[in-house]
Amino acid sequence: MSSAASGHNVPVVDVSPLIHDSSSSSSSFSPTLRPCCDALLHALEEFGFVYVTGVPSVIAASDALIAPSQHLLTKQSRPYKEQISMKIRPREWRGWFGVGDELTNGVADLKEGLYFGVEHDASCEQIKKGLPMHGQNKLPPEHDYPNMRKALATYFTEAEALGAAILRGVAIALGLDETHFTPLFEPTPFSLLRVFHYPAELQEEQAAGSRWGVAEHTDYGMLTLLHQDDVGGLEVKHRATGTWIDAPPIKDTLVVNVGDALQVATGGRCISTPHRVRNVSGTSRISMPFFYDPSFEARLPPPPPHAASSIIGFDGSIYAKLHAASEDGSITWRDYITAKTSKVFPHLAVERDTTDV
Ligand SMILES: O=C(O)CCC(=O)C(=O)O
Ligand SMILES: [Fe+2]
User: Fold this and answer.
1) Going by CA atoms, what residue is nearest to atom 5 of ligand 1?
2) Considering the entire predicted model, what is its pTM?
3) Three-state DSSP class for 288?
4) Which residue among 4, 5, 147, 319 is the one 20 to 30 A from 178 at the CA level?
5) Which segments does the entry list as coiled coil (predicted)?
6) ∠ Cα 222 225 228 (to 5°)
7) pLDDT, tens only, 140-182
């Protein structure tokens, strides 16, 4: 059912008050700040999704990265893209993957894409320690795509600042200290960026309803910030009615959604909502999700006992098993993300000891 037919639409919230008002005392908040925080929380409680506006610098940074990525994905040959394949140094979890390589819910998605992470220099501590999912981003030759590495760094900076601002707003609306979620991101967020291409030629299989661009899933982390082009195809499950509603493109907005870790961190107030993508438009679709996630070694709180099964998200089984196996009841972000990523690219399992969770 479309959103128009169900009467439910993911709300649009202007978050510019949160970006421009950084005062740390509630008595000096601008008059527009609290309504903005309340609207954000309300959307994340009902839908787990919100469109944010008032973020021109993030949109500009995202446009600067999406243009070369789109060219690379839609215009270059397979051998060209294979030069930067994820299969090269697979534990680093970066580079290009082809249609059918990534599984959601055990089924191959009808999309290809690029994975990027925080840039790690070969001499940094994390690389020396051999941590999984750390490394250098794989980019096409600079003479073909000048400035792409710079555009990537700029987008990480902009998107992380927006993620932090939104979480400050959620904390204020929940009546918590505005820095409540900050420790989870220290010393640095473990952000990931993906650029997806849903080719037009694969639409017939999706129209039949048995295959998906991305099958139903929830996101793992705290917040996802999604730039989608103007094609559409994202669907969100509305908790109250159980219906699937469209989240169509809206100009100058980003779609923001709650992941499993934020659902846990808010005691189930914000919901990590199942969503999926189907491109039956007849044209290629490009999207760019940015995952604003905790630091790699951050400790995630155990779910409150009274509500354990209802707040641990769509893939609560992994979360619950990891908690049960941990000595003090807390798990690290590393535990959760490596267990999850081992399922989506089984042949690239980054920490083999966690694949049987
Ligand atoms: O491509 C999209 O619109 C959404 C992708 C998504 O849900 C994800 O990568 O987690
Ligand atoms: Fe997602």
Assistant:
1) 289
2) 0.92
3) strand
4) 319
5) none
6) 150
7) 999 999 999 999 999 999 999 999 999 999 999 999 999 999 9
CB within 8 Å of 87: residues ≥ 6 apart: 95, 348
Q: Is the peptide bond before 68 cis (omega within 30 degrees of 0)?
A: no
Helix (H), strand (E) at residue 332:
strand 331-332
Domains held by the chain: number? 1
Residue 276 CA: which ligand 1 atom is closest? Answer: 7
In a domain, 3, yes or no: no
Which residue bears the tokens 């989240």? Answer: 247
ipTM above 0.95, yes or no: yes
Q: Answer whether residue 4 is part of any domain.
A: no
CATH code of the domain containing 343: 2.60.120.330
Helix (H, G, I), strand (E, B) or coil at 303: coil
* Residues with C-beta less than 6 Å from any ligand 1 atom: 194, 196, 214, 219, 226, 228, 234, 275, 277, 287, 289
Please tell me the number of the ligand nearest to residue 115's CA: 1
